[in-house]
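User: Structure with protoporphyrin IX containing FE, tokens only please.
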Amino acid sequence: MEIWLLLVIISLSIYFLIITIFNKFQSSTKLPPGPPSIPILTNFLWLRRSPLQIESLLRSFIAKYGPILPLPIGPSPAIVIAERSIAHKALLQNAALFADRPTALAMSNIISTHHYNLASAPYGPLWRLLRRNLTSQILHPSRVKSYARSRKWYAMIYLLVIMCFGDKFDETQIKEIENVEQEEEFVVLYVDTLLDLELPDEKRKLTDDEIVTLCSEFLNAGTDTTSTTLQWIMANLVKYPEIQNKLFVEMKGVMGDGSREEVKEEDLGKLPYSKAVVLEGLRRHPPVHFVVPHAVKEDTELENYVIPRNGSVHFMVAEMGWDSKVWEDPMEFKPERFMKGGEEEEMAGFDLTGSKEIKMMPFGVGRRICPAIGLAMLHLEYFIANLVWRFQWKAVDGDAVDLAEKIEFTVLMKRPLKFLVSIC
Ligand code: HEM
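Assistant:
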């Protein structure tokens, strides 16, 4: 091994050791109980595992030590929270305290041009400015409706559907979709709003690099999450034809004899089962199993333990939506639970923001809740409705749908969905 490389490894190890010992010394007595760890060695062993292995290991630790535990990865303390009521205490009852993000590593500073990125911005004036700009100018309900009408947004996601589902569409359909220059319109609009902003503290405008970072964040955050959820829902509709059929029958009641080609945005409100299918998809297959890491600005007490200010807090989204104390047969795909008479008596009243009680949190909750929750729900309902109204989706003989997962940026199907599609 090259001598310089050896020196770098030794220096990094010493640095990690000092930071870890320092952090342990500062907070070990007040941290929640967790598995024993040896500085550096435990880090190394954990980092060799895949994200899915880490998740299942965490599950076994939670069963042993409880739903709030320290995670021995990285030099600063990381706390994992797997229980709905503790997440509620942190993210809603102490919303402002838990709304910060951990300090970014040097590398991510380069990628995200020093925090000019909404998801990683520290909780403060810059984050507030960027978030308010996004929600009031781009994601405002009136704007969201106009994207829906122009169908340009949908076209972008259709492209992703094509990517996921391979060559299942005919050429004319693909051309029709590709011809819509949807992204251009959105980017021009977003850039216009960003050009007008004046940064707090520094009293200056955003640079070109910072604007590019913000636009790419918006496109990245919005596409993978939505298309992955769509893929999981379609997988379940192929696996369970009776659910697909129930959806089609509901649509027929609203759309009539079939002469209308497109389910429109205004039809969606009349399709409760379609919404139930989307909610069940988000519960059973949340596209991210952890929210973006949170942090506290000062040492904070939670459940009689200290959440240290120099660490990170991780909320286990999937665990919460699979809690058998709330959901009967949680691993089953049963949209009926969101219909009248189901576990969630009145589907229309289901509160994804968890304000009174968290039952699932696919979009996060509290101050950092996904700002595009309305847009994402609209896209998902619109896509599912149109995909089922226009096409019939069937499993390939001898190739049953496999719901095994793999983790990339989002949680994907390990074996991509295969199906036969025919026009209804
Ligand atoms: C099914 C679709 C989606 C899901 C499940 C989802 C989920 C999430 C989650 C779990 C978070 C982190 C919440 C937290 O840190 O506590 C988040 C944050 C965020 N999402 Fe989404 N998201 C979706 C779609 C979108 C779309 C369509 C956009 C943009 C068009 C978007 C933009 C963002 C942004 C900018 C943040 C950072 C918010 C902040 O830190 O204040 N997301 N999303």
